[in-house]
Amino acid sequence: MAGNFYIHIEPNGDVHPCGLNESDFRPKNILRDGLDESVLYAKQHNCWDCWMVYMNERKVVFGLKPEALIEVIRRG
Which residues form the domain of 16? Predict the structure, then answer.
């Protein structure tokens, strides 16, 4: 969802897909690269780089991955 439904813009103009992204993602900058290019680039990140297990699990479940849905049902 990060980069598609929300973005994080740093005070210097760097556009990140999420405020929690701690990966090696190299952001584009609104001032240097323009708003459209920066936002489109933020959509191309790898959300699996997120350190929050919950967010990765949520992505799989809401992506309707069968194995994730089966695991959720199994857990009750």
Answer: 8-75
> Per-residue pLDDT tens for 30-63?
999 999 999 999 888 766 556 666 666 777 777 7
In a domain, 62, yes or no: yes
Residue type, 18: C
H helices, E strands: number in the chain = 4, 3
Say what the pTM is: 0.61
Q: Is residue 3 part of a domain?
A: no
The count of structural domains within the chain is 1
Cα separation values, 14 from 5, 10, 37, Å = 17, 5, 12
Beta carbons of 46 and 58 less than 8 angstroms apart: no
Element (H, E) at 14: strand 14-16
Residue 60 lies in a domain: yes
